[in-house]
Write a structure and sequence with these properties.
mainly alpha; Leucine-rich Repeat Variant; about 75% helix
Length: about 750
């Protein structure tokens, strides 16, 4: 039972934001002075430590995790102000770690034992508080956004780390060997201030106490949970295998390859940038498809990455950037997958502190044992040297190979891990391969970090256009965004994504009379094109909101099919509605429904807007196969349009002249009329131009008999008949209300459509 009330949404939001800021500060601290960074490695090598000593320091820090046993069994239930305890122990951890840089002032030699002691004390302090902090996080982070929040938290940590890593590397390269200590001291001091600042910022995060937090922890309870135990064994072996080689990567770059601190920082930044990308890319997938499928994919390249470190030398280390990028993607996915799976595995009713303490102790022991084993391997491989494809292979490269070989074992252990989401790795890979992955990733980052709502709206729409399944959850969530532009673009994006999973939330928006994105939801449903949405869209044709009706019309047109087209024509012809008529004419024109021509031209007189009248004339042209040429030509300047129309008339005459379907006498007469039409067009004699066209239309209507129709075929004959009808109605009733430019353009488009229909017979 909780001893505090449920946190409000605003309090939770403030707490999560503070956690992100804290993780940003810790990310900068970690990339400046944590145990496996180039700065710390360079500092201890500067003091004369050996390669194996670096692994020794990492092991000492990891063995300090045993403090969690003491904490969970003896301390936690006795501590009343747990939040203050976490902050205090975190600050002490940072101060002990800063003391490492003061060792040269404490002793003149034998630095290794003193450094190891300070590292152990610092890590002991933090591990005493770590179980409380883990439970604190588990309580405040909502389960439905857990993986995504952990991904954002990781991104903040990494982005700050990228900046800090490069700045520290660049700064150290400013000093020579005689003054290098000044650089190390400055970086340790700044990192300590950032680390302490991050812990002090935790005071803004609400702490939800539970009754179980005051119970004495029993570390044996978690290990009786088979699901927890299997997950722990898998991750323990993975961390052990990784820990065998990981302490020596910085040593290898600084000492063997002689890479400068700034270049090491650049390479490290590649690793962290890949983690940023991976966290954003993979967290949504993990939330949707589960962790196990992701782990099955990631454990395979884990075998390869240590091997990439082997084939490098001072004049050739181009495989290291590739290894860094691959490691970053793997690590981000592993961390988010494991954390999400761990939180889901721990029972709600149990003492979570015991679970987190048991987990953390076991994993840190893997971090301790792995480097110790690696250190022993370094000494064992000391005399081994040989050439492989022109590369000198020594003790460190051999350790990397052993690490890669050990990575095979977790692949088998993963089979026993359970996940409540039954997605297979093959299905997950199929989802990742769909859509534009780069487009999704870029716009997802823009959406998360943009401050302007217009930028967020554009980004969410483009996420939909990427058609990546990873965008779906974010698009659905954005239907409830506070900004109306974001909501509208999210609905449109769901339509462009074309995912069937979006149907239910979009139908909810369409049916919600208070929703301001009902129209966008209807059009999105049409783009998805699932038959299940036809009935709701038919209902929307009679909605009280005209905008929803228009959207439903477009949606049914997008779905297509004879049933939808008949419904649209019925609505078009049965009852005239000024608001929906132009849209119906548009969609029927796009479907080449010749039945719409007469009603459209008959009812064009009801519209006084020049724009609407042009829209309707364009729909008629489009019905007859002119696509959007009418719109394109009407928007051109006068001279350009005149040249284009002249070419259309020439093409029309050529097509008629080459025709072999019409009787010769009829073909000759039509060509004569076209010559006259062309001549009057050149002279600018619009009256004679229209009169001659009317005469031509009547002649064709009179002379086409059953034999000609049979020779033309039903489709071409219908098109020609519809074009003649359009010409006659236009010239008799519509032309007098249009501008001279519109008259000439529409007439020439109809003549061209007649010639096109004739040519299609061939």
């Amino acid at each position: 039972m909780n001893t505090s009330q449920q946190l409000s949404f605003s309090a939770t939001a403030r707490g999560l934001r503070a956690l992100i800021y804290t993780n940003g500060a810790w990310g900068a601290w970690a990339q400046m002075v944590s145990l496996q960074t180039a700065v710390f490695t360079g500092f201890v090598l500067y003091l004369g430590a050996s390669e194996s000593s670096v692994a020794y320091f990492i092991s000492i820090g990891s063995f300090a995790s045993l403090a969690q046993i003491l904490s969970s069994t003896l301390l936690i239930h006795r501590i009343k102000r747990k939040k203050t305890f976490v902050i205090l122990m975190g600050c002490l951890h940072n101060l002990f770690r800063f003391s490492v840089v003061l060792v040269p002032f404490i002793v003149s030699s034998h630095h290794v034992p003193i450094i190891a002691t300070l590292i152990g004390l610092g890590m002991f302090c933090w591990h005493c508080a770590s179980p409380i902090f883990s439970g604190w996080n588990a309580e405040i982070i909502p389960e439905d956004i857990r993986a995504r929040f952990l991904g954002r938290q990781t991104i903040a940590n990494l982005l700050a780390g990228i900046v800090a890593s490069y700045a520290a590397g660049w700064y150290l390269d400013l000093f020579d060997d005689t003054t290098k200590y000044t650089g190390f001291f400055t970086i340790f001091l700044l990192a300590t201030l950032l680390g302490i600042g991050g812990f002090l910022n935790l005071s803004q995060v609400p702490f939800r106490a539970k009754a179980s937090d005051n119970e004495t922890g029993n570390l044996l309870v978690p290990f009786r949970n088979k699901q927890f135990r299997n997950l722990l064994i898998f991750f323990w072996v993975w961390n052990f295998a990784w820990g065998v080689g990981s302490p020596f990567y910085s040593v290898f770059m600084l000492k063997t390859l002689q890479i400068s601190y700034s270049n090491v920082a650049i390479l490290t930044s590649l690793f962290m940038a890949a983690m940023v990308i991976g966290s954003k890319l993979l967290s949504g997938l993990i939330d949707r498809y589960g962790s196990k499928a992701m782990l099955q994919i990631l454990t395979i390249p884990c075998i390869l990455t240590p091997i990439l470190w082997v084939l490098n030398r001072p004049d050739f280390y181009w495989l290291i950037p590739l290894a860094m990028i691959l490691n970053g993607l793997i690590f981000s996915g592993m961390l988010v997958s494991i954390n999400a799976l761990l939180y889901a595995t721990i029972p709600e009713s149990s003492n979570r502190t015991a679970y987190f303490a048991g987990w953390s102790c076991a994993i840190f022991l893997a971090h301790a044992v792995g480097p110790l084993f690696g250190s022993a391997l370094v000494e064992w491989f000391e005399p081994v040297h040989f050439q492989l494809w022109g590369f000198n292979i020594g003790k460190l490269q051999l350790v990397f190979l052993v690490s890669g070989g050990l990575m095979i074992v977790p692949n088998f252990l993963l089979r026993a891990v359970q996940d409540n989401k039954g997605t297979t790795s093959r299905e997950l890979l199929g989802q990742v391969g769909r859509g534009n992955l780069v487009g999704y990733l870029y716009n997802a980052l823009v959406f998360d970090w943009a401050r302007k709502d217009t930028n967020r709206a554009q980004a969410i729409r483009k996420m939909g256009r990427s058609r990546s399944p990873m965008a779906l959850d974010q698009l659905i969530q954005s239907l409830n965004d506070a900004n109306p532009d974001v909501r509208r673009q999210a609905a449109r994006g769901l339509g462009e994504a074309g995912a069937s999973e979006a149907i239910h939330p979009l139908l909810n928006e369409l049916r919600d009379q208070e929703s301001d994105i009902r129209g966008e939801a209807a059009e999105a449903l049409g783009k998805i094109g699932n038959p299940d949405v036809i009935d709701p869209l038919i209902d929307a044709l009679d909605d009280d909101d005209t905008r929803v009706q228009i959207s439903a019309i477009r949606a049914l047109s997008d779905i297509g099919g004879s049933e939808a087209q008949e419904l649209l024509f019925w609505k078009f012809a049965d009852h005239f509605d000024r608001a929906t008529f132009p849209t119906l004419a548009d969609v029927l024109g796009a479907k080449h429904d010749l039945r719409m021509i007469k009603p459209t031209l008959d009812r064009i007189q009801h519209f006084h807007s020049p724009a609407i009248r042009l829209q309707l004339l364009n729909a008629v042209c489009r019905t007859l196969g002119a696509r959007r040429q009418f719109y394109r030509l009407i928007s051109q300047d006068t001279l350009t349009r005149a040249r284009t129309l002249d070419e259309l008339l020439k093409n029309t005459r050529q097509m008629i002249k080459k025709d072999h379907i019409l009787p010769r006498a009829m073909r000759t007469q039509i060509h004569t009329h076209l010559e006259e039409i062309h001549r009057t067009f050149d002279k600018g004699d619009t009256a004679t131009f229209l009169t001659t066209t009317h005469t031509l239309a009547e002649y064709i209507q009179t002379e086409v008999d059953e034999n000609t129709v049979e020779a033309l075929g039903s489709e071409s004959a219908s098109q020609i008949g519809a074009a003649i009808l359009a010409l006659q109605i236009f010239l008799d009733e519509v032309a007098k209300h249009e501008t001279e430019e519109t008259q000439i353009l529409f007439v020439i488009m109809m003549l061209w459509c007649i010639a096109q229909a004739l040519e299609s017979v061939h």
